[in-house]
Design a protein that fits this description.
Four copies of one chain form a homotetramer. Chain A is α+β, with helices and mostly antiparallel strands and about 150 residues long. Chain A has a single domain (about 5-140), classed as Roll (Thiol Ester Dehydrase, Chain A). Helices cover about 30% and strands about 35% of the residues of chain A. The first copy, chain A, has three helices and seven strands. The radius of gyration of chain A is 16 Å and the shape is globular. At the B-C interface, loops of B face loops of C.
Amino acid sequence: MSFTYNRTVRFQDTDAAGVVYFANVLSFCHEAYEESLEASSINLKEFFTNPSVAFPIVHASVDFLRPMFGGDKLLISLIPQKIGGDKFEITYEITVTEVMVAKAITRHVCIDASSRSKQELPDEIIQWLGMNHRDAESAERRKSREIM
Amino acid sequence: MSFTYNRTVRFQDTDAAGVVYFANVLSFCHEAYEESLEASSINLKEFFTNPSVAFPIVHASVDFLRPMFGGDKLLISLIPQKIGGDKFEITYEITVTEVMVAKAITRHVCIDASSRSKQELPDEIIQWLGMNHRDAESAERRKSREIM
Amino acid sequence: MSFTYNRTVRFQDTDAAGVVYFANVLSFCHEAYEESLEASSINLKEFFTNPSVAFPIVHASVDFLRPMFGGDKLLISLIPQKIGGDKFEITYEITVTEVMVAKAITRHVCIDASSRSKQELPDEIIQWLGMNHRDAESAERRKSREIM
Amino acid sequence: MSFTYNRTVRFQDTDAAGVVYFANVLSFCHEAYEESLEASSINLKEFFTNPSVAFPIVHASVDFLRPMFGGDKLLISLIPQKIGGDKFEITYEITVTEVMVAKAITRHVCIDASSRSKQELPDEIIQWLGMNHRDAESAERRKSREIM
């Protein structure tokens, strides 16, 4: 099973059109990413406050399939994948009561936080990638068996 | 016991000073308010999307006692109180590992959502006020007993 | 010349990494879109508050080339383009002192705001598209002449 | 004349009630504060990114007099005042077409950014306070003369 994160849409997330403001959907995805890091025993405070290594996003994209409303219960599932020695990509699927409402991608590069030069992914991220990717693979296999 | 809401500080909530951006603390409080409404069986989607009655905030204040960092686990407790036929006030206390980090107040007035004229608090809000206030009173009594 | 919008990076736009939080860059782009609508004599209040026709974003993507810091003076240029009877796409380029820092795209579909069914782009949007596209074409021609 | 800042309400600032989300009004005020610092020749990037001295907000309050809508043109005027060797307070008034829509206060304390211990207000802030306070006093005197 891929990592999943539950998130209620807050009043603040909506705009005058009565639905979630588009850019906020990427913030929901980032929350899921943070939650998955924590589930992998990474200390969020150290990770985000004055770290020696950082993982800035170099690309993000999002597709909106249905509007999300205040009070909606979102289920965000994420699958991270290593795409180079110093890069990884995360794909996200957001559903409400099992109906897909949005899909997104964030691509991250690993840098030294002070010099901002690229560097190899550290062990804790390799471990996080492995854990979540293995989970995703088992889920895929389970799905295949169910279909057969 | 007063109503409590658990909230992890997200990366998005912080600013370049490395701590939570001040105005976001009021948003955390509003989330706790939304959660308490839902716990009182109020449908959030109906409450916030095209409602006939609305409860806009006419006053808010917040005191910051200690900085909050990304990853911090906040516990927000709230106590609402009726302060007139068409008004209520909510007081919030935010703690991190039992240390108080912020206190806040929001004051709400009840209006007809289309005409924006004031009106009496509806039954579902009276019930929500009663439930949370009674809880708060029991907590106070319990505290007194513990002191004695 | 394509439409341009000046925007100072605010403290609120940054996160604990000391730079602009990624999703906020899409909000900057949306602000530029709003400003270009207003420059085309579209009344923003009517456009966004209880309109009969709406233009929700169905896709967005953004590439981050360099970090943006609090206080940075952004110049956002945008070029909208009709991509169907009921769709348009906007491309954005963000520069700081003539250095490109980000590029983005938003794709919008035209819907009836109450039924949420697709409909043809209305005249005021066709006019806005024409105005900004013509500007963009002249800029391209001017650039070509300068190169020759 | 007190320092003034013009700000258009953006779509992002609104919520599903069709008006500005309450906590965002304090962010508008903070933007006005940032703009006034810059007008006093303070470099915002240095001020907010890894500074040696910081001015965290210890108290904020806001009164909402009328709703603000997407597209509204806000005029925010601010008056800062020294309230101790290591503290200052800013009062803000927000108007739309000369009608007051909100009033707010932020109270700031001066700290050493690394140790977080209180310290005396530095010269550049004393100068900013003087400049804006003198302006405010002249405005008051002008008003008195106009009344007489």
